[in-house]
Amino acid sequence: MLTIDANTPPSPPKKQKFYQSLYVQVILAIIIGILLGYFFPDFGASLKPLGEAFIKLVKMIIAPVIFLTVVTGIAGMNDMKSVGRVAGKAMLYFITFSTLALIIGLVVANIIEPGAGLNIDPATLKSEKVSEYVSKAKDSSLIGFFMNIIPTTILSPLTEGNILQVLFVSVLFGVALASVGERGKPITDLLQVAAAPMFKVVSILMKVAPLGALGAMAFTIGKYGLSSISNLMMLILTFYITSLLFILIILGAVARYNGFSIVKMIRYIKDELWLVLGTSSSEAALPNLMQKMQAAGCEKSVVGLVVPTGYSFNLDGTNIYMTMAALFIAQATNTDLTLGQQITLLLVAMLSSKGAAGVTGAGFITLAATLSVVPSLPVEGMALILGIDRFMSECRALTNIIGNACATIVVARWENALDKEKLDLAMSGKLVVKTEENH
């Protein structure tokens, strides 16, 4: 069995007790969190700060991790044209599969009709929270989104944590560093050295990941209760099953065509998936995912460009949710939508999903923007799914991160930037990556 650190040469594997594994610790934490939230709801709800604190800790480190990975990756590339080529191929992949996810959500909702029979009067649906999302949706536009990619200063992205702004500055600086040749080598070397302690910080933060997962899960169950999902169980089940089929069939076919198994890839990133499940945030696993993809044979430059960009543009789970939720609201309120109106919803969702990318609560904001284009569809209907959103966010986040891992390997293969031998080792379970739980 080969052990690889994303930043250091291979070293012999170290025997690890099962309870020392991050994913085992997170699974136990999730179980404890569910039990605490169910039997002691008030206490469970009070543990919310644990989950929030962990997410803040991870967000604190995301910007420097992306900056160091992207800059050193691009600076080490001989051909600057390949930067634009990687970005172009990644965007082509993102647009294709994001649109496919929207279509699948629409088709399944029409077949299953999870909202049929609820017969809810839209006039009875009033929520201040919905009004808040609607106002945010009005503020978000595609032009505003692209303008927001440009930071106030070259250093502000590192303090504000906007992923796309960090990526924008990192690509610029990486290209500039590569352009000056030997004169830039001391800075490149310095940044490569700085990457080691930065990833060590990530490993230290991951020690408290189980606490974060416990707090987030205890809060969700304690605040909303398992009983809150019973009335809308059909929508939840439909969404989870659709997402699972999208991963196994659509992404599975893409993976097989590109020489790897989607199931084996999921097993390879299981630590990150459990972390996402526990915290309901795909950002919690971003630093680890970048290390894992690099260790599996994807070149650093490709990982640095595809993974952070995918977190804003490749949201398969969010897109399935959007069209499915829109049709659920229409069915629940007995609002008949013509084929033309459904196609309009689809087209608007394609644009709005990019316009609110990277924004907190993006799923709900884009849903509000999408619903508003069909006057007969009551935006107030969003109040129906506010209560179960926490139970659906886990599935959205899991589908998103699996989609981004798949995209990274595929784009790396398209770009001939994939070490097939390392990938095969990773997919066969013979590669143990020395990330957080192994340090």
Can you give a write-up of this model?
The structure is a single chain. The protein has helices spanning 22-39, 41-46, 48-75, 81-112, 128-139, 142-149, 156-160, 163-179, 185-205, 209-224, 233-257, 262-268, 270-279, 286-295, 300-313, 316-332, 339-355, 362-371, 383-386, 389-414, 420-427; strands spanning 2-4, 431-433. The chain starts with a strand and ends in a 6-residue tail after the last strand. The chain is built from 21 helices and two strands. The protein is globular and about 70 Å long. A two-stranded parallel ribbon has the order 1-2. It is mainly α and 439 residues long. This is C4-dicarboxylate transport protein. Responsible for the transport of dicarboxylates such as succinate, fumarate, and malate across the membrane. The chain crosses the membrane at residues 21-40, 60-78, 90-112, 163-180, 201-221, 233-257. Belongs to the dicarboxylate/amino acid:cation symporter (DAACS) (TC 2.A.23) family. Its main location: membrane.
Topology:
Blueprint: E1 2-4, H1 22-39, H2 41-46, H3 48-75, H4 81-112, H5 128-139, H6 142-149, H7 156-160, H8 163-179, H9 185-205, H10 209-224, H11 233-257, H12 262-268, H13 270-279, H14 286-295, H15 300-313, H16 316-332, H17 339-355, H18 362-371, H19 383-386, H20 389-414, H21 420-427, E2 431-433
Transmembrane segments: 21-40, 60-78, 90-112, 163-180, 201-221, 233-257
Function: Responsible for the transport of dicarboxylates such as succinate, fumarate, and malate across the membrane.
Protein name: C4-dicarboxylate transport protein
